[in-house]
Amino acid sequence: MKVSEPEAVKSGAVGTNRRSFVKKAATAGVFQIVAPHVLGGPKYTPPSETFGAALIGAGGRGPGTFGDLGRKHKLAIREIARCDVKWVGKSDDKTRYTDFRRLLDRNDVDIVAIATPPHWHALISIAAMEAGKDVVCEKPMTRFLAEGRAVVEASRRTKRIFQIGTYGRFGEARRKNDLRKIVRAGLVNGKEIRVVHRGGFKVRQWSGPVRIKPQPVPDYLDWNMYCGPSPLKPFHPPRFGGMHRGYWDYDGGGLGDMGQHALDPITYRMGKDETSPVEVTVHAPPAHPEVAGMWGWVRFKYEDGVELVLESGEWGEPHGLEEKSISREDLNEKERKVFDALPEEDPLVGFGDAVKTRVLAGGHPEVAHRTVSLMHLANVAFRTGRTIKFDPVTERAIGDEEANRLIDQPMRAPWHL
Amino acid sequence: MAEESKMERSAFVERLPELTNSKWGGISKEDGEQIVAAIFKQGGDAIKGLIDGLQEVDSGEDWQERFLLHQLAVSASAPAREKDRKVLTKIYASAALGDGAATIRSFLLQQLRYVAGSSLAPELAPLLRDGDPLVLDAVAATMVSMGKDTEPILQEARKNARGHAKVAITHALGQLSRS
To answer: What is the ipTM of this complex?
Structure first.
């Protein structure tokens, strides 16, 4: 397989591992790679182009996320091992693990698919990248906002490929849209621009049950490891597997489950996938200390005046604001010249191609973090019951220290960012 | 603390609607603010009455008390609420330092994470020697939330700490070094 010279320098995604060494050596003519048809036919993938892959978090979405490595990302993989905290007594530390750290020690794992509950996503992503692995991580990327910045920094530091497990931003239709180009060109200039998204957040479905009696921890489950960086709480089934989405300790309610799916193509379309809003206002009931509950709407305002409104349709009165979009036709002559002069963006790179060529993936950590930050800011506003003023550069709430205590949260020992 | 439902619960509990299918359906923000304001107006006895209603095992039977105690902390955490913050944090800290169940003391310490400033850290310092891991984890997390001003207190506590206390304190210092 011929590999073009990596464009990774500008992206900072250059990584010297055995894959890139083989490819660079082949390009330089140091040695010859035998053509596939000589070994075993045109569809044969030589071992040098097959990636060792592991899954961490084998329940729920796990098998699907792992299967996507071949199906969606078109990577030739061989499964090395899986890890799950519910395999106490069944792990062999060869193909089945209960501790992800042991799995990440392996040199034959090149790629990790992460499908644990969200409170583990950041820590395992960082650990995997520091162990030299590329990562596909299920959404939401993180459980609280500061985790995302740590993942971005780890990706840049280690030069590993990271892709968030949502793909709404890919596709030609979304790339060619006037709104993104208008925002990128700095042509907002006081124009009223508002994107409104209604429904699909499963708010009631993923509101955690409150009146649940604790139960003995099942023998097959390492509950301490499951809780991990979150406080150790009494076990009951809703906290584990599926309904964990309804508890602040592990996730962010319906917005945690569906938010990144819905928001990723929206922030891309709005040209706001590399920044954050400066103000977040919500309409929601007072929040419960343990469970993610109902909400009505959330309104994000960006520095240039562009707005995004999410309405759940499941609580309270609707916001009532309508979408206000804009196209090239709404620009004056001078603005159209600026618009037309802006070069087209390159197509987004899929995870599979990013792994092979070491170019930044389309759903890379910065954009994934900025998207999931909307979810986190909404939840901070829900939980504090007040409007949040936010600095997109420092990524801190302004004048609200207590909101900052939700933006960056302590972790239980021994876990830390 | 309360033993099952025999002890009389705070009257404020009755002002919250029932759960729907064991889920919190919510009340309007205005209704919530009114209840919280009424509790603050009644003062320390009303707050202590809610704390007295907490149960050692969190099975949801005291969800109203937990909800209201949390809302008091969230409300008092808003800017320019120093007076309410002072009253509340003093009461929560006093209960956390008391002889109640570790689960209850841990819950109150978690509420202090939202509302307590570093000036409360010296008062909480004895809890860094507590025998219960839940309390140790919770007070360490609260100290981290309070910020780097708590470092001297943590460093002092670490000198003679052993076991889980030493782990929790060292870990808290590590997290503070990142901020």
So the answer is: 0.93
